[in-house]
Amino acid sequence: MFFFTRQKAHHPASSDPANPAGDLSFRLTTARKNKQGLKSGRPFAFFRTDRSHVADTDAPFLLERQLLARLGIGKPLIEDASARARLNGTDIECELLAGGQISPAIYYEAMAECLGVPFMADIAPECVIDNEHLDTQLIDPSMLRVSRPTAAPIIAICPRLAHLPALIERCAESENFREALAVAAPDTIREAVWQAGSNRRLAASTNRLFDRASHFSARVTFSGAQGFVAGIATTVLAGMLVFQPDVTLQVMHVALALLYMLSLFIRILAVRQGRAVPPPLPTGDAPLPVYTILVALYREENIVPQLVHALRRIDWPASRLDIKLVCEADDAPTLAAVRRHATAPQFEIVAVPPSLPRTKPKALTYALNAARGEFLVIYDAEDRPHPLQLREAFARFAAGDERLACLQAPLVIANAGNHWISALFALEYSALFRAILPRLASLRLPMPLGGTSNHFKTAALIEAGGWDPYNVTEDADLGTRLSRLGWHCGMLTRPTLEDAPEAYRIWHNQRSRWFKGWMQTLLVHLRNPVQLMHEIGPIPALTFVGTTGGMLFTAIAHPALILTLAATSLSTEGMSAWETFLYVVDLCNLFGSYAIFAALGRLHMTEREQQTVRRRWIAIPLYWIMISLASWKSIFELWARPHFWQKTPHTPAKKAG
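The chain above was modelled as a monomer; its predicted structure follows.
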């Protein structure tokens, strides 16, 4: 057997620095030529080790070291993996496989030779019977029952090195036990499970939230009660405009002015939010947990190399990373690019079967079934997260209370200097992610999360139902849902770099999708306003309306505000005190919005960012008109295509961030 093959002097030396892993494939071939059978010899003789000269720190790894050496792994590689295993709280085997220095296929084929059982390089998904417990093998692939058309089923196992001696002994004792086993690599088991359970998993990802908590789902745009109220309100408003136009317009004017003032007031409060200081990172010897990274990609083949480079810069042990690149199964160019570039062991490709709605949250929920991490973060394809962002999030979670469910990292626009649209986008993001959201977080108020760089406690995310596959701004919806379920969100300081759209059409399509999603979120959470206030309180409920609704209503009403001011300015003579008051309020709302937009954004920018934006803030009035046009388009889309996801194309950054 391969396991008992002795090393020869003329074989590639396992301690050779130029060949640290040894020629494992060569040793596997040698083993096959020298099969002796498990019944010959004494299979446990090798494991009788002398521990008298073993240091205490190495004692837990002694058996593992000797097993790996016998498998042909070089001593320098074992020593390096041992050091990382002690640091990360793992084992040598885990570190070797995560480091990519040895091939999992060859490694597990060697184990199959040790046991005298077949090695399964692939498993046909039709030979795997799907059931609700099958997805456990996506998280920890250990064994899988594989049917065979002309023979009894076989159990494909993925043995741990520590269990190998016991398995060898059991196989030596029972030929029937050995004949019922095969060995497969973890990726082989995962791939078979992904395919075998794809239809069940897809149905659950699409329908689970609606089936379990329909009041949180945007699958139905208007509830029956909302449709009835909307119909009555439209009829009453039309009648009042016909019979009492002056009074009706005055009431509408006051309502819009109040909404403007509420939105403006929230932003004024955010001015008091000081600049966040990065917290100290943990320096103890406690091992880090597994962290899952989910990235949804669709038609992103051009940006895959940049994405993989950015993810590999993250400062977190490779053996504790679970990176899932989630692609549509019919997006062949992106899948090919991912397979070409994401070759490190911590990367896993998840192919989502095509179905409607074709949205990012549906793809993320599909992959959530396999999340191995205690914590989980979402990134977009164009993101370049700060290398220390995961460590900061872990420190924040450790220091926070048990109801802290999510941490939002600030998004920083890296291409602000390229175009006036991206410059104003940068101002907008600076105000939102470095002023408004931190203020909401400090007061534990509902937060409209950004669509990326959300760090979750995985258990809290699953308990909340994951993402709504029918909501096209799943981030804003999830932040509010977490609040309603008794969780709260916080902020990080280490940013994620993104590039903003520079072309008007791309910007317009992206922004109209955001507005449509905010309308969906408002409709979902205002289906029962009394229940909403009961769950989170009157002030948080008002804050939710002022943030999510305020951004929407002010955009929609912006042209009306401009026209009203223009008309009033032409006939200021003879105005009553009430009309003068409304005129002043309108002026404050309009120019106050512009001023806060610029001031709040610049206040939290670095000096270098401010220099990049330069004087492009003078285009803010035009930018607001663009925002308004996008909001009006979203109203039509909510009626015609409520769940359509307008894809934003991305290109690699011109400057590395």
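Residues 538-569 form the longest helix (32 residues).
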